[in-house]
Amino acid sequence: MYRHGVGGYPTERPVLMHTWNTFTVHLRQRFGQRVQKIPLDAGASCPNRDGTLSRAGCTFCNAIGSGSGLGLAGMNLPAQWEHWREHFRKSNRASLFLAYLQSFSNTYGPASRLAAMLEIFRTLPDLAGVSVGTRPDCLDPEKMAILGTAPWKEKWLELGVQTLNDATLRRINRGHDAAASAKAIELAEKTNVQVCAHLMLGLPGETPDDVHATVRRLNALPVHGVKLHNVYVCRNTALERAYRAGEYVPLTEDAYVELAVDALTELRPDIIIHRVVADPAPGELVAPDWATRKGDLVRFIQHAYHRRCGGA
Ligand code: SF4
After folding, report:
1. Which domains does the chain have, with CATH numbers?
2. Atom of ligand 1 nearest to the CA of 174
3. What is the pTM of this model?
């Protein structure tokens, strides 16, 4: 176990050490100051929710689509922006921000919808760049051209790849295959939009070898960033039903740490790591309980990574 000093790992405060290529440092190098990401909910939908592909969604998916909830509360994009900008100006003294369209699939629907959202973004104060979350089958050349010609210095596509194993993609009712992810990444490569591939570790039925194979395939694709997520069980999902029936067992904390470090050490060194743990929303988590201790988990991964890379 990595917890509370066992194995020699202190947990009280982060230890400065050689680490992976972080998004925070990348942004600081690009802008000369801290840049804070602001999550936005643009009221997007998802073909895996609205009946186009299915109504069930991915088996792990929280029906509110990983959002902040502010969109559901009726706040438009500028109002959400002001809410978070004020919050982070006070809490982090941040003065430059990245707009992150997080909830559901933000390039789903007509290209004009995406263009209209980006027009709204032009009015947001202190905006350094944009990050658009979506799924691989909701992209086409027209949408990529709209994103590619947007005026900001920093433009990211946050792509829900999750795994490049087709059997797992079917098992989690993802509604697209690995080839769709590869095609979307190659489409983005033709623009100046960078791709951050989201990977989930601990998906049902996946072995460490499956994860390693996904990482190897991803290394061969033109991705610029990766987000690692530990799979956790959300309330009212198919995964919760599988978990309660004993058909899905989440990774242990130790197993996640080792798998995350495997991925971090196997990914191409130029790939920017946007995050290494997921962040369950309040009230949504069923299991595992360690998923709530994000700070500890990041420290455990740092220590294990340092040890794996030969640190003292
Ligand atoms: S693609 Fe995203 S929003 Fe759609 S069902 Fe899957 S996890 Fe949920």
Report:
1. 23-310 (3.20.20.70)
2. 6
3. 0.92
